[in-house]
């Protein structure tokens, strides 16, 4: 809503999802965006921030593309 500081429904929202069942612990996502991705005790990907700022869109796209098992999905992200 205008003037309230809250996004309205028309504003794009990013949602990050990672499949730790297919993760092979390459750590490329963690190294690229440690504020979004972390690791569990086995080294598999964990999403720390499932709704990161749209300012991170370019790096999220790079992280998704660099994942060797395609274990990262980013909803609401425009392809380059």
From TrEMBL:
Its cofactor is [3Fe-4S] cluster. Gene3D superfamilies: 3.30.70.20. InterPro entries: Fe-S_cluster_ET (IPR051269). Keywords: 3Fe-4S, Electron transport, Iron, Iron-sulfur, Metal-binding, Transport. Transmembrane segments: none annotated. SUPFAM superfamilies: 4Fe-4S ferredoxins. This is Ferredoxin. It comes from Streptomyces chrestomyceticus.
């Amino acid at each position: 809503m205008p003037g309230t500081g809250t996004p309205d429904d028309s504003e794009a929202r990013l949602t990050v999802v990672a499949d730790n069942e297919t993760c092979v612990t390459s750590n490329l996502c963690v190294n690229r965006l440690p504020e979004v991705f972390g690791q569990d005790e086995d080294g598999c990907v964990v999403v720390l921030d499932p709704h990161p700022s749209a300012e991170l869109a370019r790096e999220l796209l790079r992280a998704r593309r660099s994942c060797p098992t395609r274990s990262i999905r980013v909803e609401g992200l425009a392809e380059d």
